[in-house]
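Issue: copy button drops trailing tokens. Both records pasted manually instead:
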Amino acid sequence: MNCIALVGDIEGSRFLENRALVQQRLQAVFDDLNGRRDALGMLSPLTITLGDEFQALFRRADHVWAAIFSIESALCADSLEGQGARVRFGLGIGTIDTALNREAALGMDGPAFHRARAAVESLKRDKHSYRLLGLSPAQQLATHALNLLSAQRDGWRDNRVHIFSGLLQGESVADLAARLAISAEAVYKNIRQGELDSVRGILGGVSELANEQLGGAT
């Protein structure tokens, strides 16, 4: 089965003073996303595998970034009473060699997970946050695009992360303004200054490349 594996690793989790709260927020956002697993195209739900790691399996790349930025939003400082947590997100395109576990992303292995884990290890070395492996021949293009996104994301304040997450999930400007208790103009300002429409376009392009590769992944 061709699929896309997601492996997440919380940066410096052992040194987080609010580690228990991070775990609670993480599980809460997983419960929300897993409750919409069919709509998000999940084959196996988001599952904490170790104290600071989690994984999931997706049928296609269409909603992977919405899930990723929902997690990012949940772990922002303003969601965690002052100390935010950052995550390395490794994605791998390929097959799985074991039976599909639809109840939890555990006990599975194969090229998709190998590549996702290799992506996380490479992120630890170069200090970026997002990597997708298994693309051919567009691997370099996707890597550079995601590196640029990672560098830009480092400068985002929490509200911009929340806004971008909402946009990826189809929220309107009015709904975002109401939920975040800010003005519609503040939402538009974040979209303009953060070039969020362009970022969405880049991630859409990366997802299209991933879906093309999923048609012939090995």
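Record 2 (pasted manually too):
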Amino acid sequence: MELEFIKDKVYYKIFDRTYTASSGIYSEHKYNDATKIAELRQNISNIESEYAPSKLCILKQVHGNDVVYASGRGQEADGSVTTDANMALSVLTADCVPVLFASADGIVIGAAHCGWKSAKADIIDNIDKMMKAKGATNIKAIIGPSIQQDSYEVDSAYYSNFIADDDAYKSLFVPSKKPGYYMFDLPGYVASKLEKAGIELFLHVAEDTYSMQEKYPSCRRSYNKGEQFSQNILSTIIIR
């Protein structure tokens, strides 16, 4: 069931491991194997049948800050915007932060893949600019499920890279039990970027993709367990 974002106008839905009609593979540009391609196309078909968009925009995400006006699947970018009714924007994540945007009047929506690289490269500002260019005012955002601070260990070089931008970011780090390492609040960093852009945080789904194995895939968890990583969460937003 899709959930209401802007009353009677904009809705969102997060497809995680509890969505049993999908095996969690949605990224078409990752596979050459015919079996995998058939599987992901079936996953997308199942979502399209339930969600019934005119088009489902699934980007080729590259951890950059480019934002496109959505036209369908396969555009290379990490953010998208549309004013088209029934065009579903989406974000693929498996620890990174999915952010969904809507203007208060429900006329313009956006979606962004906020890994630390994209967030640091100001993809949120780029979404904000394109949405405003399309007539958006009073933009609101939803932060979806992502890796939480207790699960996100980073090294001292990572820490120094952020502190060089703004000393205030020290508040987003706490020392790890491992000497020379820190635990980083990635969704907190994304929230700070939203605040700087003047975007209201409507909802934060503060669930940990790393620790909630039954519900969410996690790239870092798969890596730490020596497992092959393939699944994603698909966070979607649509104007009805």
